[in-house]
Design a protein that fits this description.
three-stranded antiparallel sheet, disordered C terminus, two-stranded antiparallel sheet, 309 residues
């Protein structure tokens, strides 16, 4: 990989981004996901999206964490949503290790948090796909990756979030322990929202006694949920890449990433000025140093201290 990104059209610059990998060039979380949990191989469409649609909006190779000065807020929003999908999925895989070792937590919180993080990854994906669909007004070309969402995607997506939705809207699960092994209702039994509302504790107790086949171990429930969520997200990102890849040579799309001037299709933007999609943001070279919020400054908007006070 060359030290600098070649100038000129996308065809000139693409070889530089071809050489990027999460294992070598991602941030700390992305490298951990790839090196420890093989997420670059289990979730390869995320890596493709990252290196062709996110990385060109950054000041690589000099500053991988800084956006280009004139990057549009729409791209910033897409970046943070996509990164959040990966971060939530990484947390789910990390917690899954504890569940697999039968470390469920005193109140089964490790299991609950595992399926919760997997469900949250799906929720962040909803935000991502909505923002991508809005790009069409900026690039002058259709960008909705899922015009067939209701027909071909929604049901599987809802089923994956069954556990998370139940805990969020109905309450804690009844977990039954038999011979030191904890059991929970199978996720597919919660796929239908109307059925979820009817799954009361009394019904769960009765079902565990008389319909044992409707239950599975906590370990299997967690592994199955995380694995299927990872596979589904990879398939969904494949659709996103198929939609956005043809725009890589589109000057409007390149302009949104701060690489070339925008044409009439996209809204002009001065450095640090919002396009209106997500509000104001800090202007480039404003003197505020940005850091990955996942590891530093979580929950605060206070900038870090100067490097040389």
């Amino acid at each position: 990989m060359s030290e600098n990104v070649p100038i000129g059209p996308w065809t000139n610059r693409k070889p530089f981004y071809d050489g990027l990998t999460l294992r070598a060039n991602g941030d700390a979380a992305e490298q951990r996901g790839a090196l420890v949990f093989d997420l670059d191989r289990r979730f390869p469409e995320y890596e493709r999206f990252w290196k062709y649609h996110i990385a060109p909006a950054t000041q690589r190779p000099h500053d991988a964490l800084a956006f280009n000065p004139n990057v549009d807020d729409a791209i910033v929003y897409i970046t943070q949503r996509s990164y959040s999908v990966f971060a939530k999925l990484l947390k789910a895989h990390s917690l899954l290790e504890r569940v697999g070792a039968q470390d469920y937590g005193e109140m089964f919180e490790n299991w609950s948090n595992t399926i919760g993080e997997a469900g949250d990854a799906i929720q962040r994906f909803h935000d991502l796909r909505g923002t991508i669909a809005q790009l069409s007004a900026l690039v002058g070309s259709p960008t909705d990756p899922f015009p067939d969402w209701s027909k071909n995607w929604k049901d599987d997506c809802d089923a994956l979030g069954g556990y998370r939705h139940y805990e969020t809207h109905q309450g804690e699960f009844q977990i039954f322990v038999e011979n030191d092994m904890p059991y929970v209702l199978k996720r597919e039994k919660l796929a239908d929202r109307a059925l979820r509302a009817g799954v009361t504790w009394n019904l769960s107790i009765s079902d565990f006694q008389f319909n044992r086949g409707d239950f599975t171990t906590l370990i299997y429930a967690a592994v199955n949920t995380v694995d299927e969520t990872t596979a589904w997200l990879n398939k969904a990102y494949e659709r996103i890449n198929a939609t956005l890849d043809p725009l890589l040579s589109n000057p409007n799309y390149d302009g949104l990433r701060g690489n070339v001037p925008l044409t009439a299709h996209a809204r002009p933007q001065a450095t640090g000025q919002s396009t209106g999609l997500i509000g104001q943001h800090v202007g480039a070279y404003s003197g505020v140093r940005t850091v990955p919020a996942l590891f530093v400054m979580c929950g605060t908007t206070t900038p870090p201290p100067p490097e040389n006070p």
